[in-house]
Amino acid sequence: MEFDTIAAISTPMGEGAIAIVRLSGEDAIPIADKLFKSIGGKKLTKMASHTIHYGHLIDTKTGQVVEEVMVSIMKGPKTFTKEDVVEINCHGGIVSVNRVLQHVLKNGARLAEPGEFTKRAFLNGRIDLSQAEAVMDLIRAKTDRAMNMALGQMEGRLSKLIRRLRQEILEILAHVEVNIDYPEYDDVEEMTHKMLNEKAHFVRDEINKLLQTSQQGKILREGLSTVIVGRPNVGKSSLLNSLVQENKAIVTDIPGTTRDVIEEYVNVRGVPLRLLDTAGIRETEDIVERIGVERSRQVLKEADLILLVLNYSDMLTVEDENLFEVVRGMDTIVIVNKTDLPRQIDMERVKLLAKDHKIVTTSLLEDQGVDELEEAIAALFFAGSLEAGDMTYVSNSRHIALLHQSLQVIEEAIEGVEIGTPIDIVQIDLTRTWELLGEIIGDSVHESLIDQLFSQFCLGK
């Protein structure tokens, strides 16, 4: 498969030590060769693969020096895209890197689309679709565990498992074909039913194992949507600041200071939290505060974890008790804050209202109880689980949806076998399961979906 030559800036825009302009395609080296003047005068086309060379980038029209650069030459197929790749290392300034890119584009390259380098790696067979998606997971990873999980998927851990399951289904389909072609042999039919049942159960069990990791995998990939709730002035913004370890939220003694939802990412014991500090939920005549309260109620519905904050130095109010009803049935940790002040709260009543929810006491002013809270969060979602590097986690929403569909179809196939449905009918469900699993790794996927997935990548990757 041949493509035109693409180019893009592959490092973040802004001031820095270096920036990289990457080219990929059949003309990548000749285009760079037009622009590059090495100190020794040697042509890039004569250079050995996987070498780097110092020199200057020259304006082909005026002969003037554009930039001082280091140019890396990597010849296909031993490259990320399996095409010839050139990386021009220049000074990391916005003007500098844009100037280099413009000269590259003027001399025959096309500006790459978002994710087009990774898309070429997929289309050229270097990686499958699940590995390509893991590239962006690696870039966006917010914790070590998330990064390890993405690395495992990039190395093909999920791909190998999916391919093995598809091979099992192919073996079943081959036996079904034998049964259909030679119906006069009763022993073949009996063997086919028995093998079909065993193999289908095996595939179903393996899909179930993958889905059991999906909740934790999705949390590692996307972060745990964590909402801090409580009535005004109980310490919600102080809790946000303690977890983030920065003064992101305004903290005062005036109730109702937080008027909107404040969002921050934080790493808690390897669990990425998307922290949402909400406006205190109470009845209010203040129009702005009331809008904030309504937004708080909305984010509550979409939360994975609730941190319900109470005031140790106040009696429980009707508003406090109503919040326990609001979060009923949700993963919640109850935080009783301000233990540095005299106790007014009825802790026995708190325990009764909390039921099975974990209760943590804190004095955020004195930085007490935060470690216990972090341990409680990690234990709630990852208690007894293996590290991301020790098993295959499924984290991508698209993969999870396809696995659920595959599970449903394979269960229909098993049910068909058990009630004596003709094998050629059961074959349809098996083929559909094989196709759905293939969509995960890109063996059976529509071109429009591929375009949509890679459009979400950053430019230059």
UniProtKB/TrEMBL annotation:
Gene Ontology molecular function terms on file? hydrolase activity
Class of this enzyme: hydrolase
Q: Entry's InterPro entries?
A: G_TrmE, GTP-bd, GTP-bd_TrmE_N, GTPase_MnmE, MnmE_dom2, MnmE_helical, P-loop_NTPase, Small_GTP-bd
Which parts of the sequence belong to the TrmE-type G domain?
Answer: 223-382
The superkingdom listed in its UniProt entry is Bacteria
Primary location? cytoplasm
Give the enzyme's EC designation: 3.6.-.-
TM annotation in the entry: none
Q: Where in the cell is it found?
A: Cytoplasm
Provide the cofactor list for this protein. K(+)
Q: Which PROSITE patterns does the entry link to?
A: G_TRME
Cofactor binding notes? Binds 1 potassium ion per subunit.
Question: Residues that bind (6S)-5-formyl-5,6,7,8-tetrahydrofolate, according to the entry?
Answer: 22, 87, 126, 461
Positions with a binding annotation for K(+) = 233, 252, 254, 257
Binding residue positions for GTP: 233-238, 252-258, 277-280
Q: Which UniProt keywords apply?
A: Cytoplasm, GTP-binding, Hydrolase, Magnesium, Metal-binding, Nucleotide-binding, Potassium, tRNA processing
In terms of Pfam families, this protein maps to: MMR_HSR1, MnmE_helical, TrmE_N
Record-annotated residues binding Mg(2+)? 237, 258
Q: Which family does it belong to?
A: Belongs to the TRAFAC class TrmE-Era-EngA-EngB-Septin-like GTPase superfamily. TrmE GTPase family.
Per the entry, what this protein does is:
Exhibits a very high intrinsic GTPase hydrolysis rate. Involved in the addition of a carboxymethylaminomethyl (cmnm) group at the wobble position (U34) of certain tRNAs, forming tRNA-cmnm(5)s(2)U34.
Could you describe the subunit structure of this protein?
Answer: Homodimer. Heterotetramer of two MnmE and two MnmG subunits.
Name of the protein described by the UniProt record: tRNA modification GTPase MnmE
Q: Which gene encodes it?
A: mnmE
